[in-house]
């Protein structure tokens, strides 16, 4: 090989190596330190500044940021089983104008999401998923009067986000975000299930361990005006999962605090166990079809609409 050819090859390899290194995301230790937060805010020329730092433990910290003392949000970063978990909660005061909300959701929230992705990593995939959430929310009619629940996947990471109003005001007040790796998500679902059991016990809600055959035998309420709601756990798998092209009237008009609000993002599926199969709706989930095909304990809310039962799978836990 000639000297010229060798030089060309060396330069080519150097360029490829430099490109590869340049595209690599910066990695930040968890829990996020005050110094790291300051450096990133300065690098991004952000107007947000640190209001409070709470070192919960060696494995967890909560940093609160604010801008002009009007809106504040906290970033909770922790290490659990050597895996990063990041959560964010943003509180908006109830006296904001529509112009204030417009500015927040179109300008401030994207910056907050960007900051979360910067620290967590997997930023390209995370940004893509959160951008889709914002586009969905901002293109809906009367968006500031509605709640939105979002569950998505960014590569091997799970993303859960909610935008919801305070109970006593018809305005969006709280935005929450949770990002965690696939290895931690099943444990999260188990803890979610345990929390649901404790809540149900405190509120005198009975959770029935049931089967598909027993679900089919459930009798409708005596009068059309009666409200009938039942919480079930069915051990089985989900098949034929697909997006809903048009939300049926029964699902759109069913009222229950147990059902997530944006029904157009629900899925349809068949729930199958050893006693049979039945059609169900499935709330937006970051679990894949393959993961839901594995037998799980499916937490289901059953309601009747015009005398017909509706079954909604709220979340599904891998029972090992």
Structural topology:
Elements: H1 3-23, H2 34-43, E1 49-57, E2 60-67, E3 71-80, E4 83-91, H3 98-120, H4 123-138, E5 148-154, E6 157-165, E7 172-181, H5 182-202, E8 207-210, H6 212-216, E9 229-243, H7 249-253, E10 267-273, E11 276-282, H8 289-293, E12 296-305, E13 308-317
Parallel strand pairs: 8-9, 11-13
Antiparallel strand pairs: 1-2, 2-3, 3-4, 4-7, 5-6, 6-7, 9-10, 9-12, 10-11, 12-13
Helix pairs in contact: 3-4
Q: In a few lines, what is going on in this structure?
A:
The chain has 320 residues and is α+β, with helices and mostly antiparallel strands. The chain has helices at 3-23, 34-43, 98-120, 123-138, 182-202, 212-216, 249-253, 289-293, and strands at residues 49-57, 60-67, 71-80, 83-91, 148-154, 157-165, 172-181, 207-210, 229-243, 267-273, 276-282, 296-305, 308-317.
Oligomer: single chain
Q: Using DSSP, what is the number of strands?
A: 13
Distance between the amino and carboxyl termini: 60 Å
What order do the SSEs take from the amino end to the carboxyl end, as H and E?
HHEEEEHHEEEHEHEHEEHEE
The average pLDDT is 85
Main beta sheet strand tally, sense and closure = 7 strands, antiparallel
Q: What share of residues is helical?
A: 25-40%
The percent range for strand residues is: 35-45%
- Decide which structural class fits the backbone: alpha+beta
Low-pLDDT ranges: 1-24
Spatial order of the strands forming the largest sheet:
1-2-3-4-7-6-5
Radius of gyration, taken over Cα atoms and rounded to an integer in Å = 23 Å
Q: Count of helical segments?
A: 8
Sum up the overall morphology in one term. Answer: globular
């Amino acid at each position: 090989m000639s000297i010229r050819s060798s030089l060309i090859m060396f330069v080519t390899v150097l360029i490829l190596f430099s490109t590869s290194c340049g595209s690599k995301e910066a990695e930040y230790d968890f829990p996020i330190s005050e110094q790291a937060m300051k450096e990133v805010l300065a690098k991004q020329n952000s107007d947000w500044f640190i209001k409070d730092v709470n070192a919960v433990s060696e494995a967890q910290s909560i940093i609160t940021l604010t801008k002009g003392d009007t809106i504040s949000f906290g970033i909770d970063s922790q290490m659990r089983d050597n895996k990063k978990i990041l959560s964010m909660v943003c509180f908006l005061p109830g006296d904001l104008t529509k112009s204030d909300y417009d500015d927040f959701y179109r300008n401030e929230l994207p910056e907050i999401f960007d900051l979360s992705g910067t620290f967590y990593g997997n930023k390209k995939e995370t940004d893509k998923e959160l951008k889709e959430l914002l586009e969905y929310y901002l293109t809906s009619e009367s968006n500031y009067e509605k709640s939105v629940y979002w569950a998505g996947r960014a590569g091997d990471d799970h993303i859960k986000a909610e935008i919801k109003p305070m109970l006593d005001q018809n305005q969006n007040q709280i935005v929450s975000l949770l990002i965690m790796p696939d290895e931690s998500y099943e444990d999260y679902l188990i803890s979610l299930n345990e929390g649901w059991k404790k809540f149900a016990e405190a509120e005198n809600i009975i959770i029935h361990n049931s089967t598909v055959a027993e679900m089919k035998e459930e009798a409708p309420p005596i009068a059309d005006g009666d409200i009938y709601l039942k919480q079930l756990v069915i051990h089985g798998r989900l098949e034929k999962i697909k997006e809903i092209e048009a939300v049926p009237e029964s699902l759109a008009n069913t009222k229950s605090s147990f059902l997530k609000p944006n029904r157009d993002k629900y899925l349809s599926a068949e729930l199958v166990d050893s006693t049979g199969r039945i059609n169900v709706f499935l709330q937006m989930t970051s679990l894949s079809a393959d993961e839901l095909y594995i037998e799980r304990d499916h937490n289901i809310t059953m309601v009747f609409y015009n005398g017909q039962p509706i079954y909604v799978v709220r979340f599904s836990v891998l029972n090992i």
